Each structure stands twice: as structure tokens, then as C-alpha cells.
Amino acid sequence: QQQVKQSPQSLIVQKGGIPIINCAYENTAFDYFPWYQQFPGKGPALLIAIRPDVSEKKEGRFTISFNKSAKQFSLHIMDSQPGDSATYFCAANSGGGADGLTFGKGTHLIIQP
Amino acid sequence: NAGVTQTPKFRVLKTGQSMTLLCAQDMNHEYMYWYRQDPGMGLRLIHYSVGEGTTAKGEVPDGYNVSRLKKQNFLLGLESAAPSQTSVYFCASARYEQFFGPGTRLTVL
């Protein structure tokens, strides 16, 4: 049973556009929702994270929107650049951080110049 | 401050061989994790540890064993490697947010 569903699998956006990646979760015990960015041959790197007590969080050009009632959250990348081309993973966990993360299957994002 | 390091970076095994992957962190984190990443599957948790001397099973623990004898190290063992264990293995450590190592690419022939 996949507990975090991520879409789309792949996404191509023109430079300056706003790619949006969506995730939906099933486990209502989840209380921490990070997004990771991964470049080829590298490990995932934490981009931004949110807890369910807020509906939106911004860090630079990256924004997470969170809808607790719908059990959905999304990543928006403002003014996207070719250097943002990477694979993005949403994830979730509970238990104060000790639990392992449950990941979505990833979105391969290409930003065209 | 090296963060999370993994040894080796690459390895090729034959079916039935054994090996140990080493993860080390210098951030004094309590929590450590082993994940595997397969194409189109995201990352899946194999085992994790919430402190020195403790381990717990994750989503896909079969065929793997782990040990956390020292706080800074987390070892992942494959006793009898199978082709289904061909994957990229990532270690992570955390106090709150999880920080990942660079990965070990393992091929089992």
C-alpha cells in the first residue's frame, strides 16, 4: 500500500514558469512533510519542509502548500531555472522525527532554457 | 565536517556473496536510517536506529541485517546477496531533519 502518492511522474516547464508537484497521503498520523531534491548520482537533499499547523511555507523560490482536510500538499517553484532540473521527492513521517520517511515515487523535472 | 559518508561507493557482487555497507556521520545524530532506491520506486526504508545499540525494521527489511555498535556508525549487511538487491543504497542521519549520504551503487549478478 503506497502511503504517499506523488504526481506527475515527469514534468517539463519553460524557464521562468512555475512547476507544481502534488502529493497525497493516507496516514493521518503523519505530521511532518519534507521535500527533497536529487541530482543524478547524488543523495537526496532537503529542500523545504512543513508541519500541518500551517497551510503554506516559503523559502526563497520554493513554496509548500498544505491542505490538511484533503490530505494533500504541493511544491511550487517560482521563476524556475534550468539549474532546478532534478528529481523531486515528497515524503512524510510521524513520531517526532525518529521514524523513517515514507517517500513518494518522485517527479523528474526538466526546466527548458 | 563531512556530514554523512558511505563506503564503498560502488560494488559488484555475485549471487550468494556477502558484504557490509558502512555509514558514518559526524553530526552527533541519534537517529540513523538505511534506504534503497530503485527506478520508479522512490526511496524505501530498510532498517533504522533511534540510538546506539538499537535497531528496528522498516518497510523492506528482508535479506538485510544492521548493527549500530557506535553512535556515529550504522552498518548494513547482506548475508547472501540476490539479484533483487541490486539497487542504490542511501544512509541518512537525523536529529530532526534527515540528511542523506552520497549513496552506494550495488549490482548483484
Describe the structure.
The complex is a heterodimer of chains A (113) and B (109). In chain A, the strands form two sheets. In chain A, strands 2, 4, 5, 9, 10 and 11 form a six-stranded mixed sheet that branches. Chain A is built from no helices and eleven strands. Chain A is mostly beta strands and 113 residues long. Chain A has strands at 4-7, 10-14, 20-25, 33-38, 45-50, 56-59, 62-67, 72-77, 86-92, 102-103, 107-112. The mean pLDDT of chain A is 94. Chain B is an all-beta fold and 109 residues long. Helices cover 0% and strands 53% of the residues of chain B. Chain B has strands at 4-7, 10-13, 19-25, 31-38, 42-49, 56-57, 65-67, 73-78, 87-94, 98-100, 104-108. In chain B, the strands form two sheets. In chain B, strands 2, 4, 5, 6, 9, 10 and 11 form a seven-stranded mixed sheet that branches. Chain B has a four-stranded antiparallel sheet with strand order 1-3-8-7, with no helix packed on it. In chain B, strand 4 and strand 5 form a beta hairpin. Chain B is globular, with a radius of gyration of 13 Å. At the A-B interface, strand 5 and strand 10 of A face strand 4, strand 5 and strand 10 of B.
Core attributes:
heterodimer, A: 113 residues, mainly beta, 6-stranded mixed beta sheet, 5-stranded antiparallel beta sheet, B: 109 residues, 7-stranded mixed beta sheet, globular
Task: Summarize the entry for a quick read.
Chain A is mainly beta and 113 residues long. Chain A is built from no helices and eleven strands.
User: Based on DSSP secondary structure assignment, what is the total number of beta strands of chain B?
Assistant: 11
Instruction: State Rg of chain A.
Output: 13 Å
Distance between the termini of chain A: 38 Å
Mean pLDDT of chain B: 96
Q: Which whole number gives the mean pLDDT of chain A?
A: 94
Shape of chain A: globular
- CA gyration radius of chain B, whole angstroms: 13 Å
| Uncertain residue segments of chain B | none
User: Could you give the order of the helices and strands of chain B?
Assistant: EEEEEEEEEEE
Number of helices of chain B: 0
**Structural category of chain A:** mainly beta
Report how far apart the termini of chain B are. 36 Å
In helices, the fraction of residues of chain B equals under 10%
Q: Strand portion of chain A, in percent?
A: over 45%
* Biggest sheet record of chain B: 7 strands, mixed
Globally, the shape of chain B reads globular
